[in-house]
Design brief:
This protein has helices at about 5-20, 45-55, 60-75, 85-90, 125-135, 145-155, 160-170, 175-185, 205-210, 210-225, 275-285, 350-354; strands spanning about 195-200, 235-240, 255, 265-270, 315. With about 350 residues, it is α/β, with parallel strands linked by helices. The chain has a five-stranded mixed sheet with strand order 2-1-3-4-5, with helices on one face. α1 packs parallel to α2, α2 (about 45-55) runs antiparallel to α3 (about 60-75) and α7 crosses α8. Residues about 25-30, about 30-45 and about 50-100 have low confidence and may be disordered.
């Protein structure tokens, strides 16, 4: 039980003592509530090893099933027949299953997501894989796990199947469980089937103060879905992201467009939104329209939506490059550069240096 947080080690020791005291083969009482919940992602490896050890001490059938559930939950292969997710939740509590995105990390075999689902990088993406791997020394190529998972997700219509994660593990020559750990830790990776357009509303405090909750509620009402769900036509999945890093233009949404595969994948920010703006933007995507890049200089022509434009960036026509509405009041001209002597000047005489 070395490593990890002290509170986690204490919970695991308590759980271990409880398991030994009830390993008599009879039906065991529920795990005392003081032993859970365990934090998501905390000490996964140690937890799995000790649950396996507990299963070998003639523990009750429900505990053995729970240990299988943990192996499945963290992605150690597909679910086995007889795995009881209910028993798993009862013994370890629900919080270990929760992700900040509101979905579950537990893996369940489905027709489109199991170890037998075919996945292979395309030739074009193998070229991208080679380019990514060239950034790292050969003995550190496992560092490329995040960009390769992202590439696999783009190719696979916005989510990572078990076979896609296994392919990344094979390319990087690393244990599959290490890839599962990364994919289930970062909420940027989706473990369930997505719509063609993944709409994420920023939920951090500045956006919340500026009305992001109203935007989220408006999208839920308009499309008849809740956060984490997909419309019946399979086009729109609604999600949430924490801090998109553009608080000056709050509230905002991001749209990940998987409709064109990895070759035409786009990820765009839309800022300074009202509820009507958010619905209008998503409807443009549903119609198959693609937004134009945001203006990047004062000379670029901004095409407001009121005039039929569909552009990335601010939706407030009075703003240019995230500047204040009505134009800048400071920094009206380029600031002067710092003083630097002309390096072509002759070297001063030694007495002049003194």
């Amino acid at each position: 039980l070395r490593g990890g947080r002290g509170s986690d080690r204490q919970r695991l020791r308590s759980w271990w003592r409880w398991c030994r005291s009830h390993s008599n083969g009879r039906n065991s009482p529920p795990v005392p509530s003081t032993l859970h919940p365990l934090k998501p992602g905390a000490m996964r490896g140690s937890l799995l090893r000790h649950l396996r050890a507990a299963a070998g001490l003639r523990c009750s059938a429900s505990l053995c099933t729970a240990s299988q559930g943990v192996a499945t939950a963290i992605g150690r292969g597909p679910a086995t027949p007889g795995t009881s997710t209910t028993a798993f939740r009862q013994h370890l509590g629900p919080s270990i299953l929760a992700r900040s995105s509101g979905t579950l990390s537990i893996h369940k075999d489905t027709p489109e997501n199991n170890s037998e689902t075919p996945f292979e990088f395309t030739d074009a993406n193998y070229a991208k894989v080679a380019a990514v791997l060239s950034r790292y020394p050969p003995n550190w190529k496992q560092s490329a796990v995040i960009p390769l998972l992202d590439l696999a997700q783009q190719q696979n219509a916005g989510f990572l199947t078990l076979s896609a994660m296994n392919k990344v593990a094979a390319v990087l020559e690393m244990p599959e469980i290490r890839v599962y750990e990364v994919a289930t830790f970062y909420t940027m990776f989706n473990r369930y089937k997505m719509g063609k357009y993944h709409v994420m509303v920023c939920g951090t405090t500045p956006c919340m103060l500026r009305g992001s909750r109203d935007i989220e509620a408006a999208l839920e009402k308009h499309y008849g879905i809740k956060k984490g769900e997909t419309t019946e036509d399979g086009l729109v999945t609604l999600g949430e992201m924490e801090c998109m890093g553009c608080c000056v233009s709050a509230p905002m949404i991001t749209v990940a467009d998987y409709s064109g595969g990895s070759e035409n994948y786009t990820y765009n920010y839309f800022e300074d939104l009202t509820t009507d703006d958010a619905i209008r933007i998503v409807e443009e995507y549903r119609k198959g329209n693609k937004p134009k890049p945001a203006s990047t200089a004062a000379t670029d022509k901004y095409e407001p939506w009121q005039e039929g434009g569909f552009m990335v960036g601010t939706q407030m026509r009075e703003r240019i490059n995230a500047g204040p509405a009505g134009g800048n009041t400071t920094l009206l001209e380029p600031p002067p550069a710092p003083y630097c002597r002309d390096l072509t000047d002759p070297e001063p005489a030694p007495e002049e240096k003194k």
